[in-house]
């Protein structure tokens, strides 16, 4: 086991700019060693600052431990350290010579399912840990289901604590087969199984000398080389308008630009665009990026777009290519994860935030609640409580241009907000969730709308 590390060698600006970015999330049951894996990954990839490692070594020594407890590198909250569990989503940023990473370390307890949803919602890859002694358990299936629900493109099954099962290939193979079958049924497109020991460092950064029967990549090797399959530059182009810039100065008397971060796709000068929800169309006459004009811009650049015609545009509008505009609607059906302590009920009046636009809305129906343990559906539960995942039908006060979550994770998602105190209630994904199970048929009528 590695007990020391060399001071981190920071990458140069040129090296960083030449690497790609991978967002990934970790998930695992309590005591599966998730925090230890993350700590080992940071430690062995030399992504830990010297003072951080020294602090961990001091705490570990005070507990009578011979080696640093690398889980302390990620359990940042006092309550987490005292209980030995991860409670909140902890984000870590690190880089190697081949790639930059944003890591979301999410809790394993069932009551923190909402935290995993938060961490995995923007992830390109999810690492699901399994204790080799316990195999695939209820929480493993839950984590696979959440990854499938959020359409995370890549899933790594990390079979941990192989040192405690004598590094037996048969143990790893049985777990990998069972998990792969379950996750594939959910529609997870790519699954990579890796046998590891986070505590001993086997197959995390360095290849294990104890498992010569395994010929695949280590965890870090896979993270560095996995392709980011959903190239946002080639998705449906979407620009939510954040600000309307009108300096009205002597130098810029007629300047009128529409600023925001490109959510997906590419925009070009001269392109015919449509502004939603108004439906007005014109052409892009210019694009400013970092104060300089450019001919083309793409996700996730923050730009200011200038248009040929002076049409009415305000914050919350969505600029899209005229040939690839999403439909606008006031009726949204979505899969949601309820994250607030107060229940979400039929008839609940909420605010719906989609991109930069926030509108009033009402929960028309809750057709089903999903039981992640066995993927069964509980029809018309009447409400969703904290950590529940279910289907909802929502009526908005104004038409919204929404994509299906399957087509665009950025513009196919939304949150519901309590209009009284601004609390985030629910995270939603528009359209169908994973392939199974079949959606529940709604037998209710459409009466009773307030708008």
Structural class: alpha+beta
Termini distance? 63 Å
The mean pLDDT is 83
Helix content: 10-25%
Share in β-strands: 25-35%
* Largest sheet composition: 8 strands, antiparallel
Sum up the overall morphology in one term.
Answer: globular
Radius of gyration: 24 Å
In the predicted model, the low-confidence regions spanning at least 5 consecutive residues are: 1-8, 435-451
Output the number of helix runs. Answer: 8
Q: How many DSSP E strands? A: 25
How would you describe the overall organization of this protein?
The chain has 451 residues and is of the alpha+beta class. A hairpin with a 3-residue loop joins strand 11 and strand 12 (280-289). Strands 7, 8, 9, 11, 12, 13, 15 and 16 form an eight-stranded antiparallel beta sheet that branches. It is globular and about 70 Å long. The chain has helices at 13-17, 34-44, 50-62, 78-83, 113-120, 138-149, 169-186, 219-225; strands at 20-28, 90-95, 99-105, 125-131, 154-160, 190-195, 239-240, 243-245, 257-261, 266-268, 272-276, 280-289, 292-294, 296-298, 302-307, 318-321, 328-338, 344-345, 349-354, 357-371, 376-379, 383-384, 389-401, 413-417, 424-430. Helix 6 packs across helix 7. 18% of the residues lie in helices and 33% in strands. Residues 1-8 and 435-451 have low confidence and may be disordered. It contains eight helices and 25 strands.
Keywords:
disordered N terminus, globular, alpha+beta, 8-stranded antiparallel beta sheet, ATP binding, single chain, 6-stranded mixed beta sheet, 33% strand, 8 helices, 451 residues, disordered C terminus, GTP binding
């Amino acid at each position: 086991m590695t007990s020391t590390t060399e001071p981190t060698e920071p990458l140069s600006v040129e090296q960083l700019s030449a690497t790609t970015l991978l967002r990934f999330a970790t998930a695992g049951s309590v005591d599966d060693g998730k925090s230890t894996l993350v700590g080992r990954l940071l430690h062995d990839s030399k992504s830990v600052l010297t003072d951080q490692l020294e602090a961990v070594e001091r705490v570990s020594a005070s507990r009578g431990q011979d080696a640093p407890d690398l889980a302390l590198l990620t359990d940042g909250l006092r309550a987490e350290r005292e209980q030995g569990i991860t409670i909140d989503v902890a984000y870590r940023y690190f880089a190697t010579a081949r790639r930059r990473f944003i890591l979301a370390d999410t809790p394993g307890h069932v009551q923190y399912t909402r935290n995993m949803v938060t961490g995995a919602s923007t992830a390109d890859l999810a690492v699901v840990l399994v204790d080799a002694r316990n195999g695939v358990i209820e929480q493993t299936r839950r984590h696979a289901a959440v990854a499938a629900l959020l359409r995370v493109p890549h899933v790594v099954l990390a079979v941990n604590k192989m040192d405690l099962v004598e590094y037996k290939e048969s143990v790893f193979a049985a777990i990998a087969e069972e998990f792969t079958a379950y996750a594939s049924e959910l529609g997870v497109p790519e699954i990579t199984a890796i046998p590891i020991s986070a505590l001993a460092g086997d197959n995390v950064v360095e290849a294990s000398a104890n498992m010569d029967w395994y010929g695949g990549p280590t965890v870090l090797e896979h993270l560095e080389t996995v392709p980011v399959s959903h190239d946002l530059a080639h998705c449906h182009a979407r620009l939510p308008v954040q600000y309307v810039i009108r300096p009205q100065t002597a130098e810029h008397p007629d300047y009128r630009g529409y600023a925001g971060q490109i959510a997906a796709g590419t925009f070009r000068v001269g392109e015919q665009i449509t502004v939603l929800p108004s439906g007005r169309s014109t052409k892009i006459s210019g694009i400013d990026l970092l104060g300089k004009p450019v001919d083309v811009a793409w996700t996730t650049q923050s730009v200011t777009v200038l248009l040929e015609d002076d049409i009415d545009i305000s914050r919350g509008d969505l600029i899209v290519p005229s040939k690839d505009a999403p439909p606008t609607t006031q009726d949204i059906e979505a899969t949601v994860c309820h994250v607030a302590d107060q229940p979400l009920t039929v008839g609940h009046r909420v605010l719906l935030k989609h991109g930069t636009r926030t509108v009033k809305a009402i929960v028309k129906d809750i057709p089903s609640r999903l039981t992640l343990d066995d993927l069964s559906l509980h029809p018309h539960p009447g409400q969703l409580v904290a950590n529940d995942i279910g289907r909802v039908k929502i009526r908005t006060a104004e038409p919204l241009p929404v994509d299906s979550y399957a087509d665009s994770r950025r513009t196919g998602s939304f949150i519901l907000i309590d209009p009284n105190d601004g609390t985030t209630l629910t995270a939603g994904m528009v359209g169908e969730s994973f392939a199974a199970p079949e959606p529940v048929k709604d037998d209710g009528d459409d009466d009773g709308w307030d708008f």
